[in-house]
Request: fold
Amino acid sequence: MILSATQLRAIKERNDEELRKGRYAKHGYPAHTIQDLLHTIEALKKEKKKWQHLAQERGEALRRIRELTRCVEAGREEESALPPPSTILD
Reply:
C-alpha cells in the first residue's frame, strides 16, 4: 500500500497524540513501532533523494565525457584530412 504525504502526516499526528498520552494511551496501540516505521520512511526518502542526485551527477559526467570524445574524434578527422608534413615542405 502506498501512502500519500497527507496520509503519512495524519498517521504521524495521531501517533504523536498517542505518545503524548503516555500511560493513558489506548491499550495495545503500537505507538513506538509506528514511530520507528515513520522514521524509517523518512530515512528512505532521504536515501532516495541522495541516489537521485548521484544519478543526475553521473548523467552529467557521462554527457561531458561524450562531448569530449566527440571533440577528440573530430580533431583526429581534421588531422587525417591534412596532407602529410613532408609534402607541405616541398
In short: The CA atoms of residues 48 and 54 lie 10 Å apart. The chain has one domain: 5-83. The two ends are 80 Å apart (CA to CA).
